[in-house]
Amino acid sequence: MPIEITGRHIEVPEREKERVRERVTRLERHAGSIDDARIVVTGEKHRVTVEAIVSSRRQTWKAKEETADIPTALTAALDKIEAQAKRDRARRKDKKHGPSLRDVVKEWEVEVLSPESLRSAGPEKRIVMKTSKIPIKPMSAEQAALELEDSRSEFIVYRDSGSERVSVLYKRRDGNFGLIAPEW
């Protein structure tokens, strides 16, 4: 990893160059492998300006800091770069920015069997399939029961809002409801 430290109108002490090398190698914890690091230290009258550009294969971070002395300016600029790298790493790891399971599966294809087709199978029982798409909505078991009462369907497939699992609520012959909640 090449680290280029340049002084304009000012001489950068070797001790500070070594601290910069140490901080940039420590930055690899957050950024992965560092491809390139360029630090430009500019001295003007009573102030020191540090411009830092650090590149990895994923990202390039830039920081500019201006203080009265070299160590403080270098530390502040490298702190800014480290904060940017931490933020980028957290953003990559954050599941909020990836596709959620709720977004991936909006509808499931379900094979609906009518009771008549199963009863009239005769000596050789066969499964007659009718395929339809059923939207899976997030709701509670009580909301699903209310929706099932109002519909002509014999079952409802929903995503339980409490546990985020797909469940099936069905009408029983005795007038009550049955619940199928798979365990993963």
Give a quick summary of the entry:
The protein is α+β, with helices and mostly antiparallel strands and 184 residues long. Helices cover 33% and strands 36% of the residues. The chain has 5 helices and 10 strands.
- Tell me roughly what share of residues is in helical segments: 25-40%
Q: Based on the coordinates given, report the CATH architecture of the largest domain.
A: 2-Layer Sandwich
Q: Compute the average pLDDT.
A: 83
Number of domains: 2
The N- to C-terminal Cα distance equals: 46 Å
CATH secondary-structure class of the largest domain = Alpha Beta
Low-confidence stretches: none
By CATH's scheme, which homologous superfamily of the largest domain applies?
Ribosome hibernation promotion factor-like
Q: Please tally the β strands and state the result.
A: 10
CATH topology title of the largest domain: Double Stranded RNA Binding Domain
Strand content: 35-45%
**Rounded radius of gyration (Å):** 32 Å
- Could you describe the largest sheet, including whether it forms a barrel? 4 strands, mixed
Which word captures the global form?
rod-shaped
Q: How many DSSP H or I helices?
A: 5
Sketch the topology as an H/E string, one letter per element. EHEEEHHEHEEHEEE
What is the structural class? alpha+beta
Strand order in the largest sheet: 1-2-3-4
What do these coordinates show?
By secondary structure, the chain is α+β, with helices and mostly antiparallel strands. The protein is 33% helix and 36% strand. The chain has helices spanning 14-31, 70-93, 101-104, 115-119, 141-150, and strands at 3-8, 34-44, 47-56, 60-67, 107-112, 130-135, 137-139, 155-160, 166-171, 177-180. The chain has a four-stranded mixed sheet, with helices on one face. A four-stranded mixed sheet has the order 7-8-9-10, covered by helices on one side. A two-stranded antiparallel sheet has the order 5-6. The protein is rod-shaped. The longest helix has 24 residues, at 70-93. The protein folds into two domains: 3-97, 2-Layer Sandwich (Double Stranded RNA Binding Domain); 101-180, SHC Adaptor Protein. Strand 8 and strand 9 (166-171) form a beta hairpin. It has five helices and ten strands. The model has no long low-confidence stretch (mean pLDDT 83).
